[in-house]
Write a structure and sequence with these properties.
about 375 residues; Aspartate Aminotransferase, domain 2; Aspartate Aminotransferase, domain 1; 2 domains; 3-stranded antiparallel beta sheet; 12 helices; 14 strands; globular; binds pyridoxal-5'-phosphate
């Protein structure tokens, strides 16, 4: 059996090497390292893929979030609501901009931000909501957009884990994640569903004015050379990364399908196990159906019932099966983000999930033998402990 890895980027690269290598070589020989034609080409191709008017490439997914918030003109002291159960980047940039992060609980089935909890947290200072399409599953966007409209709030989608997923609206129409809110951010970190070979990120929006503002912000606040109209940052996607991404973009749907296929096999194996809750999709979808792509499985995450999760993690490690715990600590309990306003009773779901979730190897190159070995090892441990 091929060695099991949490993410197997080498096998994926080997299959596209013939396209990627000459594309990188071309950048080396043209020396157009920054703002070269490849960056523009990738930007256009991603705009077409997502069906969005503006993609603004930048240096990483964390910058993308920060720049989106800067572009919206959010002011110190204003409140931004986001999920307690996510990667820290989301709350970090809110705090860096001297905005007030307001963390709220998530839904126990989808792991996505709980809309009722958002509504409860809204105050006159609230200016924006940041839903995260966690683990690749679209957040509850219809309800979030309706709530935002009612309270006049911006919605910034953190699409770092959800690129390529579609959200099915109540009327049956579909939109790609990242194109539903006012603005969205994504990350091209190597292990993300569309990853480059270093750091990269992008901001998406259909708003022409906001796109213009953001294009200046990523470039030192310059709209005309050496005229700095606003305080900006230096955040660029370099041409080599754009070349890699442009070579990979045509494969994104296949990559996400490969992830969904692996998820389907995992879920088949764990189905009906009384102690294993498999990932869910949205709108009564199981996340693995053929017709809807609400889930692109950035992670395949189980919720365990009455299982010593940490003992299972140790057992898998001993058996050379990598796994992950995303995330082991709720953000509201992180030292940097503690706040007296928080009440433990409001974080019941997150406080439980951090002790019961486990993410299994998930990437585009998993084979049946590996999946069978992983699932039987997990089930054997749970049934015998
Ligand atoms: C990866 C990630 C980010 C940050 O992206 P970087 O490119 O690593 O800066 C932000 N939010 C979420 C949910 C992520 O998973």
């Amino acid at each position: 059996m091929k060695k099991i890895q949490m993410v197997d980027l080498v096998s994926q690269y080997t299959k596209i090497k013939d396209v990627v290598d000459p594309s990188i070589q071309e950048i080396l020989e043209s020396a157009a390292f920054i703002n070269g034609p490849k960056v523009h080409q990738f930007q256009k191709n991603l705009e077409d893929y997502l069906n969005v008017k503006h993609v603004i490439p930048c240096a990483n997914g964390t910058d993308a979030l920060q720049i989106a918030m800067m572009g919206l003109g959010l002011k110190p002291g204003e409140e931004v609501i986001t999920a307690d159960f996510t990667f820290a980047a989301t709350v970090e940039v809110i705090a860096l901009l001297q905005l007030t992060p307001v963390l709220v609980d998530v839904d126990p089935v989808t792991f996505n931000i709980d809309v009722a909890a958002i509504e409860k947290a809204i105050t006159p200072k609230t200016k924006a909501i940041v839903p995260v399409h966690l683990f690749g599953l679209a957040a509850n966007m219809d309800e979030i957009m309706a709530l935002a409209e009612k309270h006049n709030l911006y919605v910034i989608e953190d699409n770092a884990q959800g690129i390529g997923a579609s959200y099915t609206h109540g009327d049956g129409s579909k939109t790609k994640t990242g194109v539903i809110g006012h603005v969205a951010s994504t990350s091209f970190f190597p292990s993300k569903n569309l990853g480059c070979y270093g750091d990269g990120g992008a901001i998406f929006t259909n708003d022409d004015d906001l796109a213009h503002t953001i294009r200046g912000i990523v470039n030192h606040g310059m709209y005309k050379r050496y005229h700095h109209d606003v305080v900006g940052v230096n955040s660029r996607l370099d041409s080599i990364q754009a070349a890699v991404l442009d070579a990979k973009l045509p494969h994104l749907d296949d990559y996400n399908n490969a992830r969904r296929n692996a998820a389907r096999k995992y879920t088949e194996a764990f189905k009906n196990h009384p102690k294993i809750v498999t990932p869910s999709g949205r709108r009564s979808c199981d996340g693995i159906c053929d017709t809807c792509d609400c889930h692109v499985f950035h992670q395949y995450t189980l919720n365990l019932i009455d299982v010593d999760r940490d003992a299972l993690v140790a057992h898998l490690q001993e058996k050379n099966i990598p796994c992950g715990v995303y995330y082991p600590i709720p953000l509201h309990k992180q030292k940097a983000y503690e706040d007296d306003r928080y009440n433990e009773a409001d974080f019941e779901v997150t406080n439980a999930l951090v002790k019961s979730v486990i993410s299994l190897p998930m990437h585009t190159e998993l084979d049946d033998e590996q999946i069978a070995h992983i699932t039987s090892t997990v089930i054997n441990f749970i049934d015998n402990n």
